[in-house]
């Protein structure tokens, strides 16, 4: 009987501990209260804060997405803070590339260019990146650099329609599509 009571008590404590643990680790979720009847900027801030928590520490692409919302939505300091946190820690080359794209989308070539250059220096065999980054160079008026990058892209891969479209579009002023 004593063993039975100990087993029941242990089970109750275990279940209670799992419940507390689950409640403590549950990520926030958006609800109508997060955005209804709020000013657009306040709703966006609340939702983006939740998205950052949902992304966690290891979700760099997701955090970059939240930073993009901030940055392109006019909350540049908050977006820059997200980008700086990612770039100051251990990160993938693709994180550099994604942040460069956001700066380019924001029309901030001076911030995009060094990140694009940094990415391409470590990814010399990425044909699509050469075409896309070359397109950005052409759109900024640097045709010589763009065409060197286009040459490299086609040298690596000359039968990819996306690459050909990035290059063609750049000559018509069309930004590369992600």
UniProtKB/TrEMBL annotation:
Q: Does the keyword Disulfide bond apply?
A: no
User: Which PROSITE patterns does the annotation name?
Assistant: TPR (PS50005)
Q: Where are the TPR repeats?
A: 127-160
UniProt keywords, alphabetically: TPR repeat
Signal sequence residues: none
- Coiled-coil blocks: none
* Protein name stated in the entry: TPR repeat family protein
